[in-house]
Design brief:
The complex is a heterodimer of chains A (about 425) and B (about 325). Chain A folds into 2 domains: about 5-185, Four Helix Bundle (Hemerythrin (Met), subunit A); about 265-420, Alpha-Beta Plaits, CATH 3.30.70.270. In chain A, a hairpin with a 2-residue loop joins strand 4 (about 370-375) and strand 5 (about 375-380). With about 425 residues, chain A is of the alpha+beta class. The model of chain A has no long low-confidence stretch (mean pLDDT about 85). Chain A is about 70% helix and about 10% strand. The longest helix of chain B is centred in the N-terminal third of the chain and has 31 residues, at about 1-30. In chain B, about 45% of the residues lie in helices and about 20% in strands. Chain B has 12 helices and 12 strands. Chain B has about 325 residues and is of the alpha/beta class. In chain B, the strands form 2 sheets. In chain B, strands 2-1-3-10-4-11-12 form a 7-stranded mixed sheet, with helices on both faces. A 5-stranded mixed sheet of chain B has the order 7-6-8-5-9, with helices on both faces. Classes of the chains: A alpha+beta (about 425), B alpha/beta (about 325). Chains A and B meet through helix 3 and helix 4 of A and helix 5, helix 8, strand 11 and helix 11 of B.
């Protein structure tokens, strides 16, 4: 059964009231118990006083004398019997003593009345003495019993006070413990539920539309959670998260960037990307003082291929040349289309010698792996110019210029050659 | 899942604690429990032994140091003899028995008086004879039981009227004969104790007259033993503790106590009600007991019933040590 928070608070308040009522009743009940114990003590004092009075009346006078006035004794005796009848409620031990006092006092009265009927005129002195002693002994016993009762009652007062104080403390402790537990429990339900809802709002803020799962259920918080979860479900369905959007944009940007840097025909870097990379490498080589070489390759008699086989074969040839170059260059080298049938390879950490070796490998590879179109081998050669970064080069264009000069020299010197910039 | 595991763990720990507790209890049970001494008590089968019957019924000795074996006997004298013969550790006897035994060489003590009645002895006459006072007994045939409180009681009643046993025709009988002779009208009066007095009243109904003699004699029942050593004194203390519990039960539940006695002795409830109001159930060792024993001893010596004529020291037969440990307020005799 689900209980609402307001019901819990009402219940808690009722418990507080009940505790107060129980405590008040316990205090009243305890005070009555203590009062009863005190009334027992007063009662035993009265019994003791009356018994002493009766003893005194017998000791002070000769009860067998004809002038002895028995009315005073009988009057006190009647008071004692009346007092015994009005005894307060007693414990079982006290009742045992009370029964003894009661019975002895009846016996005393009977014996005294009998003695006073005719003063035992016919009896001898020894029997008179015996009966007088018996009377006194019985009064002594009543007196002793009342003293015993008094002692028992006094001990009982202490016990009653101690017991009742402990009882009140126990009630108070149980009540306080229950209330503390109740209040902590209520506070926990409030704080936990509020924390869970706050966390959910924070997650919403970052676009994470999750459901709230409450640890402690209550009608009020459950209704809030139900509304919140409904709202989050709709938001989740209609809203693209910022993260997803960022990923999409980044992917598109990456694609666009790749498109803008790539030659659409050969799929190698275009002129713009070539220059961008060239400038970066130039800066890096300036910083690290490493060697940087540049190779410019031009396909010999490319126009003839176009004329003889058509532009489509020409395009295939350009792709083939790129393929051969990509097979031979290192991972750190950068191949780009400079324009028409001209390509540039940027060679970081590479001197002229390294560049010449690579150029030879490319020429050999192209010789061995010529383009085959419709079973026809299309053999082409490359004129290659190589330049290396030196103090004279202030920018990337100057380095290209030198390589271009060397490539023209290769053309002039008979093509399919490698020339190095001076 | 974690909550479920914690629950199982707690359940397991609880079971472990209970099993451990049980093992410890069974191993050390004897150490924790009070060491119990076996003790035998000869109990006279009379309603005066009510505290013992109630104690047996409510297990009042359970929390004390004794395991009580009850030995039922007829009459306080037989109970006393069993103690003296060493057949039982304790016995329940009347003050009359103690008075007579105090004159013998028997060495015994009484630890406490647990009941007294000032109306156990009754003087019965036939209604047709119209004898309503002791002074009318002169020259009449009166039956008593020789050398018992019955004879002592008659002599006391006669002395109050200035008479002696010589002024009446005294005949001696045993308790059963005394009843029979009175019913057959062969005796004018009898002095008899309960339950015989009750039986006579039941049989003769309105033809019998009970002369008012209440509180001229007190009969008490006492816990007696041989002179105790340390162990016997410890046992006596534990018996008195149990008796105290039983007496408090009697004060709180008199009707239930009556039923216990009725069932134990197979008596009519009418008889229990007949005697009950005369009984005072209370542990004590007081001047009343001392006076009763003393006055009966004086009477025995005066009437030369016993071969011993030296007045014994009554206080030597009253051992206050056990009751002082149980209920010091109940002791009212000089040191």
């Amino acid at each position: 059964m689900k209980v609402s928070l307001s019901e819990r608070i009402y219940f808690f308040n009722i418990c507080c009231c009940l505790l107060f009522v129980v405590l008040a009743i316990s205090i009243l009940w305890s005070s009555q118990k203590v009062e009863l114990a005190l009334s027992r003590e007063a009662y035993t004092q009265k019994v003791s006083n009356l018994t002493n009075r009766l003893k005194q009346l017998i000791v002070s006078d000769d009860i067998y004398h004809s002038d002895y006035n028995a009315s005073g004794w009988l009057d006190s005796q009647s008071k004692l019997i009346q007092l015994l009848k009005s005894a307060p409620i007693l414990t079982s031990k006290q009742l045992t003593i009370q029964n003894s006092i009661n019975s002895q006092s009846q016996s005393v009265k009977r014996l005294f009345t009998r003695i006073n009927e005719n003063k035992l005129k016919k009896a001898n002195e020894s029997i008179k003495k015996l009966l007088r002693t018996r009377l006194m002994t019985q009064l002594e016993i009543i007196s002793a019993d009342s003293m015993q009762l008094s002692v028992v009652v006094q001990k009982d007062i202490y016990k009653v006070i101690k017991r009742q104080a402990l009882f009140i403390l126990l009630i108070l402790s149980i009540g306080l413990f229950t209330l503390l537990y109740g209040s902590f429990r209520l506070a926990k339900v409030f704080s936990m539920s509020l924390k869970e809802i706050k966390n959910a709002f924070e997650k919403n803020h970052s676009g994470n539309f999750q459901k709230i799962e409450l640890t402690h259920h209550s009608v009020e918080f459950d209704s809030i959670v139900k509304a919140f979860n409904g709202m989050n479900q709709k938001l989740g369905e209609t809203t693209v998260s910022l993260e997803v959007m960022k990923n999409i944009v980044e992917e598109r940007t990456r694609n666009l960037k790749q498109l803008s840097n790539t030659d659409p025909l050969t799929k190698v870097a275009n002129r713009r990307a070539l220059f961008e990379r060239g400038n970066i490498e130039l800066l890096r080589e300036h910083r690290s003082q490493n060697k940087l070489s540049l190779m410019l390759l031009d396909c010999d008699y490319f126009k003839n291929v176009n004329d003889e086989y058509g532009h489509q074969v020409g395009d295939k040839l350009l792709k083939h040349i790129c393929y051969i170059c990509n097979q031979e260059i290192r991972k750190i080298d950068f191949l780009g289309r400079y324009g028409g049938e001209e390509f540039i390879i940027i060679l970081p950490d590479c001197d002229i010698k390294g560049g010449v070796e690579l150029a030879k490998r490319i020429q050999n590879s192209l010789l061995k792996n010529c383009l085959v179109v419709e079973d026809k081998k299309i053999k082409v050669t490359l004129s290659i110019g190589i330049s290396m970064l030196g103090d004279k080069h202030k920018n990337f264009e100057q380095l290209i210029y030198d390589a271009d000069q060397a490539m023209y020299a290769a053309k002039e010197n008979g093509r399919n050659r490698i020339e190095v910039s001076k | 899942m974690i909550t479920l595991n914690i629950k199982y763990a707690l359940l397991f720990l609880g079971l472990l604690a209970v099993s451990g507790g049980y093992l410890m209890y069974s191993n050390y049970q004897e150490t924790w429990q009070i060491k119990k001494h076996p003790v035998s008590i000869a109990i006279s089968k009379t309603p005066l032994s009510t505290p013992f019957f109630v104690a047996e019924s409510i297990n009042a000795f359970q929390d004390t140091c004794v395991n009580v074996k009850y030995v039922d006997v007829i009459g306080g004298k037989n109970a006393f003899n069993k103690v003296m013969l060493g057949e039982t550790d304790f016995g329940t006897s009347s003050d009359s028995v103690l008075a007579f035994q105090s004159l013998t060489k028997n060495t015994f003590v009484t630890h406490a008086m647990f009941v007294e009645s000032d109306n156990d002895m009754k003087l019965l006459t036939h209604k047709k004879d119209n004898i309503v006072s002791v002074s009318q007994l002169v020259g009449k045939n009166i039956g008593v039981i020789k050398g018992t409180s019955s004879e002592y009681f008659l002599s006391t009643l006669l002395a109050i009227e200035g008479l002696t046993t010589k002024d009446v025709n005294l005949s001696y009988f045993n308790p059963t004969q005394l009843t029979e002779y009175f019913i057959r009208n062969e005796l004018d009066a009898v002095v008899h104790w309960e339950p015989f007095a009750f039986n006579i009243v039941q049989l003769l109904e309105d033809q019998v007259n009970i002369i008012e003699t209440k509180n001229f004699h007190t009969l008490s029942f006492n816990l007696v033993s041989k002179i105790p050593d340390k162990l016997l004194l410890e046992k006596a203390t534990c018996i008195l503790q149990g008796l105290n519990t039983a007496i408090e039960y009697i004060a709180s539940f008199p009707e239930k106590s009556k039923i216990i006695v009725m069932n134990k002795l197979n008596l009519d409830l009418s008889f229990i009600n007949w005697v009950w109001d005369d009984y005072i159930f209370k542990l004590s060792l007081n001047q009343s007991l001392r006076l009763n024993i003393k006055s009966q001893v004086v009477w025995v010596i005066e009437t030369q019933m016993s071969e011993y004529n030296d007045m014994p020291n009554i206080d030597a037969f009253l051992d206050r040590r056990a009751i002082m440990q149980v209920d010091p307020g109940a002791v009212n005799i000089p040191l």
